[in-house]
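User: Hi! I have a protein structure encoded as tokens and I'd like to know what sequence might fold into it. I'm fairly new to this, so please keep things simple.
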């Protein structure tokens, strides 16, 4: 229980779904998947505990998962090592003072939008990156940007108090909603493009349409709060499971 709390596992375990989707788009189950999931778990543990170190003055728990991440790098290919290094770099400059991109509008959102989507590429790049992988990357990037916008609005008052000028602080909730609608429907566009190219089946497209439509409606009807954030995460996990199922069928 202490490990779960220190490394905030409940806050990031769902991101491993990106690794699973990326992996099964290119391969069937084998031992590489276990090593990838383990590496990404250590990197996410580092990211969240490093953020806590700078935000809340907690102990330097981040050193241990960072060391374990590097220890597993030799089991990755060169592309995956590069992607993992980029991920670690992004999450470091996101929290690290005085750089602290977390406190910079637009860059704060972009860091997490790109950073967490790199996990998909880590699963996907068992060989090389192609146009299919890039389109999937853009689809998940759009969803992650909306997740980040919602997160920033929920933490808006706390960020103001800490003088962290995030995108939500800079633009306000109304403009954030407009951006979120844009990214949601961009995600659907990428899913539709994948369907037209016959790279996904109708179930994948339908799941994307439902997810996009539901949260577009909720953004119109509701204020952005912690309840909406929970719904976005929960329905995101369900949608991810549908994606995995549709990929195995395909």
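Assistant: Happy to help. Inverse folding works backwards from shape to sequence: for each of the 250 positions I chose a residue that suits the local structure. Here it is:
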């Amino acid at each position: 229980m202490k490990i779960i709390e220190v490394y905030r596992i409940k806050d990031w375990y769902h991101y491993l779904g990106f690794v699973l989707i990326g992996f099964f788009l290119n391969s069937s189950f084998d031992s590489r998947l276990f090593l990838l999931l383990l590496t990404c778990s250590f990197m996410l543990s580092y990211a969240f505990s490093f953020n806590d170190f700078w935000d809340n003055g907690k102990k330097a728990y981040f050193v241990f998962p960072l060391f374990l991440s590097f220890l597993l790098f030799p089991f990755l290919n060169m592309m995956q090592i590069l992607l993992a290094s980029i991920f670690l770099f992004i999450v470091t400059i996101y929290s690290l003072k005085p750089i602290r991109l977390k406190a910079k509008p637009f860059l704060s959102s972009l860091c997490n939008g790109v950073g967490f989507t790199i996990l998909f590429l880590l699963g996907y790049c068992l060989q090389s990156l192609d146009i299919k992988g890039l389109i999937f990357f853009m689809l998940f990037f759009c969803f992650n940007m909306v997740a980040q916008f919602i997160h920033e609005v929920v933490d808006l008052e706390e960020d103001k108090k800490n003088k962290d000028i995030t995108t939500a602080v800079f633009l306000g909730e109304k403009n954030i909603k407009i951006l979120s609608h844009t990214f949601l429907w961009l995600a659907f566009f990428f899913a539709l493009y994948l369907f037209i190219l016959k790279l996904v089946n109708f179930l994948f497209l339908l799941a994307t349409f439902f997810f996009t439509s539901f949260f577009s409606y909720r953004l119109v009807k509701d204020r952005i709060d912690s309840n909406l954030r929970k719904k976005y995460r929960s329905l995101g996990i369900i949608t991810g499971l549908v994606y995995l199922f549709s990929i195995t069928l395909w």
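A useful reference point when you look it over: The two ends are 39 Å apart (CA to CA). Feel free to ask if any position seems puzzling.
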